[in-house]
Amino acid sequence: MLTSIPIPPGNDSDQPVLCIPATLFHAFPDRTVVLRAADPAAARALLGPQVPARVLFLQLTDLTADLGPLCNWAEGLAIDLLMADPAAELPLLYRCTGLLDRHPVRVTVPLLPGLASAVKLALSLGLAVRLAGHQLTPEVAAQARAALAAYLHNPTVAQPVEPFHSLLLAFLHDTPVDLWSVLERDPAQVLILDDQGEAVPDQGPASAMAWREALVAIGVASGVTTGAPCRDCPWLAPCGGYFQWPRPADDCGAQSLFAELHAAATELRASLAAFSALPR
Description:
Layout: E1 17-21, E2 33-37, H1 40-47, E3 55-60, H2 68-71, E4 78-82, H3 86-89, E5 105-110, H4 115-124, E6 128-132, H5 138-153, E7 161-162, H6 164-173, H7 179-182, E8 190-192, H8 208-216, E9 219-221, E10 224-226, H9 228-231, H10 236-239, H11 255-276
Helix pairs in contact: 4-5, 5-11, 6-11
């Protein structure tokens, strides 16, 4: 089972992993990379028959592309399917299931209308899921709760939905978790570059740690009054202000997700303890 597509915190020089267009692969010969490509055939031609170990996985940005080149190439290479519009692209997930014969596959679903249906379908097809995005509108927050319910309560689900999966385990075992890291959005760990090789400006704060500290500070951070939404939030430690980016004064809309996951972990812990206490 694919629990997640791992992103190490950096290479031997403590440099972040680079998420780059496949066309820039040779521009960074000594870096660990995630490659983005719209055309699987072009990526295959670029990398050759043996994918270098420094390529962690391939992000496919066009779900309408011909998937044939991926079905008989680079067995074991993880594939991340990037949805742009979950409502419009929902039917395209069916054609991606053939990749599972040779690859671990994950679907990255943006926090947009249609996400609940996309998550439910991906799980039914045996695909892991990562949610992408930050602040939730009321409509999207409701869909996120529906996706969480599907993850928690559908007994046929066998793949993770991030960040729900990592948060549930962290609450269950009372261990720390960092949403920026789980969702691969901390630029100190994963740096996203555009087609010109420049850092994408809206991927997140320059420092996730500094962003968290600014949110709990009293006063002004970067010219924006902060502190009120996050300072007293019981979920600040695992969230780190993830759902407060980039508008710190807005309602994040995510507190109910954390509360439900914490309650589920508490219930699961009690059930495991009761099972352990049964006579053998």
